[in-house]
Amino acid sequence: MPGEITTEQVAHLAQLARIAADEQELAQLSQDLGKILGAVARVQEIATDEVPATSHPIPLSNVYREDVPVPTLTQEEALSGAPEAAEGKFAVPQILGEE
Amino acid sequence: MGEITRLTAAELASRLSSGEVSSVEAVQAHLDQIERAEPLVNSFITVTADDALATARQIDERRARGEELHPLAGVPVAVKDLIVTKGTRTTAGSKMLQEWVPPYDATVTAKVREAGLPILGKTNMDEFAMGSTTEHSAFGRTYNPWHTGRVPGGSSGGSAAAVAAWEAPLAIGTDTGGSIRQPAALTGTVGVKPTYGSVSRYGVIAMASSLDQVGPMTRTVADAAALHELLAGHDAQDSTSLPQAVPGFRAAAANRDVKGLKVGVLAQSYGAGVSAGVRGSFQAALDLLAEAGAEIVELQLPALDYALDAYYLIMPSEVSSNLARFDGMRYGLRAEPQDGPVTAERVMAETRRQGFGWEAKRRIILGTYALSAGYYDAYYGSAQKVRTLVKRDFARAFEQVDVLASPTAPTTAFGFGQDAEDPMTMYLNDVFTIPANLAGLPGLSLPSGIAGDGLPVGFQLLAPELADERLYSAGGALEALLEERRGGRFADQLTEIGMAGSAADSTGGI
């Protein structure tokens, strides 16, 4: 329901968005989001069934380019900002399972 | 060298081409001003003095050899730190990218380099362009050059303050819901949000992709036209880039004739949230236009009353998706959790906890909610329908008038920390600027005068999509009428940084 997001909901959303947060932050977010949603939920007043949605202000369709190779970043450039790299690849922490 | 920084970009360009001033002298004068003004305004996150001087030397040499140069070659520019610059760190105002040095240039950066404009540095901004005050930066606040106890607006507050404080004659900003026009209004400068898709977004760190647009920030309408011309044009690297050729804007900006121009005034301009000082200045500018032969009509665009609400659902939804790329794996910050297993997922969550500021987190979570199953239709779906209704209202209005007018922001510059209690307080600043982003329309803000509190007031013009030229012909004419009445350029009234602060109170927003 509009205007109310519980801290449990916020905790779930934070987990979906991959943002670690403590109890105090979750409580503050729940309060802030409640205020914002309470205000903006009024979009429903005029968004009736017969109105189509607009996702893009000036829509383009079928944007193609010639299928020809163009210069790209070198491997070194692509890895230049990586927190960690090894053997010309991004090095990441353990991704499967937790032991 | 003080005098060089007081020139408009057009004046400086003509002194450069006549050989009266060299580009090295021009850049050095602005670097000197940056050194003087930065302790007061903090417009820049990074100053690139050596690079700017090197570019200036190259341009001076090429000019000496008699090479054909771009009209703005050698005129220095400041670039918002949301726009990537190869070899110069680009932070987006965030701890997440504090040390990130991009391996490529944005298309607009490449255009600026190609034309030979020395880049003075990267300007401060609300983190990832989220905010209307430039308080939400990991690199400290920017202060309004007119009154250092007030915000400069945002999110392009650094670019606006740099131009107002004579640190740069030209700056580049980005506008998602008013982030060029609102800081221009609060700092007494000129800012233009071009038609959506008419300036490439390639290499501009995305906030809300269906709303973001890059544009010029300057002290005069003619300078905005010249910089806009340089930035605009189709770019195959951006799949939302419009294929249409962009016309020249400098000729339009030289227009002085408003006879028969039909100006529609948004009825919301007379709403309760608009301060008396803003209303007075706005009305006086409309009266000038009417005396010069423009036809002024008030128009009701009722769907615009819902634009702010739709924006605060659509924008966070796009933010939650766009900012998912900051995961601590490929570039930017990586932070490990203090205890427990160091898995990729837990590293992402800790990286995003440490790397994002509060406003960014709030918008990501809000967007995640608005897009979640069960709420999607009620929130994001409804907001997209409002977007259709806003577009329809504008289309109807532009059947009757050539341009639309309103104040750019409901108040003059206000004090710091005013959104602490209720986030909606800050969001309301963008009530006049947001509709243009939802509909993709071009908009311009120029200073109409000074309110009773000694601070600048912004006047906004809107035009139909792809009719950016009208902003310059109407804006150029209005600027000239205002200058005639005033007896000089608006920006010249700021003789000393923070000067208005001594005359005005410190609570803000009259």
Automatic annotation (TrEMBL), chain A:
UniProt entry tagged with the keyword Nuclease: no
Top EC class, one word: ligase
Highest taxon above the source species: Bacteria
Protein's job: Allows the formation of correctly charged Asn-tRNA(Asn) or Gln-tRNA(Gln) through the transamidation of misacylated Asp-tRNA(Asn) or Glu-tRNA(Gln) in organisms which lack either or both of asparaginyl-tRNA or glutaminyl-tRNA synthetases. The reaction takes place in the presence of glutamine and ATP through an activated phospho-Asp-tRNA(Asn) or phospho-Glu-tRNA(Gln).
Family membership: Belongs to the GatC family.
Subunit structure, interactors included: Heterotrimer of A, B and C subunits.
Protein name according to UniProt: Aspartyl/glutamyl-tRNA(Asn/Gln) amidotransferase subunit C
UniProt source species: Sediminivirga luteola
Gene: gatC
TrEMBL record, chain B:
Keywords recorded for this protein, A-Z: ATP-binding, Ligase, Nucleotide-binding, Protein biosynthesis
Cellular component, GO annotation: glutamyl-tRNA(Gln) amidotransferase complex
UniProt-listed PROSITE patterns: AMIDASES
Source taxon at top rank: Bacteria
One Pfam family named in its UniProt record: Amidase
EC nos: 6.3.5.7
InterPro entries named among the record's database cross-references: Amidase, Amidase_CS, Amidase_dom, AS_sf, GatA
Catalysed reactions, semicolon-separated: L-glutamyl-tRNA(Gln) + L-glutamine + ATP + H2O = L-glutaminyl-tRNA(Gln) + L-glutamate + ADP + phosphate + H(+)
Active site, UniProt feature: K80, S155, S179
Molecular function in Gene Ontology: ATP binding; glutaminyl-tRNA synthase (glutamine-hydrolyzing) activity
Domain Amidase: 25-471
The protein's enzyme class: ligase
GO biological process: translation
Protein purpose: Allows the formation of correctly charged Gln-tRNA(Gln) through the transamidation of misacylated Glu-tRNA(Gln) in organisms which lack glutaminyl-tRNA synthetase. The reaction takes place in the presence of glutamine and ATP through an activated gamma-phospho-Glu-tRNA(Gln).
PANTHER family xref list: GLUTAMYL-TRNA(GLN) AMIDOTRANSFERASE SUBUNIT A, TRANSAMIDASE
Subunit-structure text: Heterotrimer of A, B and C subunits.
Family from the record: Belongs to the amidase family. GatA subfamily.
Designated name of the protein: Glutamyl-tRNA(Gln) amidotransferase subunit A
Organism this protein belongs to: Sediminivirga luteola
